[in-house]
Specification:
The structure is a single chain. With 213 residues, the protein is α/β, with parallel strands linked by helices. It has a single domain, classed as Rossmann fold (3-Layer(aba) Sandwich). α1 crosses α6. The radius of gyration is 16 Å and the shape is globular. The two termini are 15 Å apart. The structure holds glycinamide ribonucleotide. Glycinamide ribonucleotide binds next to α1, β5 and α6. The site of glycinamide ribonucleotide has 16 residues, from α1, β5 and α6.
Length: 213
């Protein structure tokens, strides 16, 4: 059984996608054991609550240093014995301590085709605003392993989405979620849970068959 801890900061539609794929049997032998939000009162916490998943708010501003924040997160996920940590719309920064403690066991979903429209300051609706301003015809989403730098760890999966002439940041954001994020995040978790992701330097190779075959 893969014990998954999920980090959120907002509406939690990606969290919902994972919950649904566990419930419909696509993600076998996977369980969300805890959801941690960087903000109180967000809808993601309600979603988790409805499914009986233990939740906690661990907010960066309650800690004087990034190291202390990392330690609080490490303590929490260690208590729940998490084997994979999924950043599903998590908008706080984590530090080297956290990344090294769960090395190659933290993944993040980002709403663009990395390395475009990513890095510090690119989160939520902003990558979509910037993509429209730039005039790209294709954008999408990326799931990647998390390292010490923003949005720069080895890429697991990407999916492209066509930009339409009449898109607004909001319509584009929604379509990127529907056509890309909610598909590739569960898919990446499935590949991880089956032991099929092999990191070789910057690259992630996907093995044909995994530990469950
Ligand atoms: C999603 O679009 C996710 O890709 C993005 O925030 C949104 C959260 O939505 N994450 C980032 O921008 C991280 N850099 P959700 O709370 O409904 O899943």
């Amino acid at each position: 059984m893969l014990r998954i801890g999920v980090l959120v900061s907002g509406g939690g539609t990606n969290l919902q996608a994972i919950i649904e794929r566990i419930e419909d049997g696509y993600l076998k032998d996977c369980s969300i054991v805890t959801v941690v939000s960087s903000r109180p009162g967000v809808y993601a916490l309600e979603r988790a609550g409805k499914h009986g998943i233990p939740c906690e708010v661990i907010s960066r501003k309650s800690y004087s240093s990034l190291d202390d924040y990392d330690k609080a997160l490490i303590e929490h996920f260690t208590k729940y014995n998490a084997g994979l940590i999924v950043m599903a719309g998590f908008l706080s920064m984590v530090g080297t301590l956290f990344v090294n403690t769960f090395k190659n066991r933290i993944i993040n979903i980002h709403p663009s085709l990395i390395p475009s429209f990513c890095g510090k300051g690119y989160y939520g609706i902003i990558p979509h605003q910037k993509a429209l301003e730039y005039g790209v015809k294709v954008t999408g989403a990326t799931v990647h392993f998390v390292n010490e730098e923003y949005d720069s760890g080895p890429i697991i999966l990407q999916k492209a989405v066509q930009v339409r002439d009449d898109d607004t940041p909001e319509t584009l954001q929604r379509r990127v979620m529907e056509e890309a994020e909610w598909l590739i995040l569960p898919e990446a978790i499935k590949l991880f849970s089956e032991g099929r992701l092999v990191i070789e330097g910057r690259k992630v190779k996907i093995k044909e068959s995994g530990i469950n075959d």
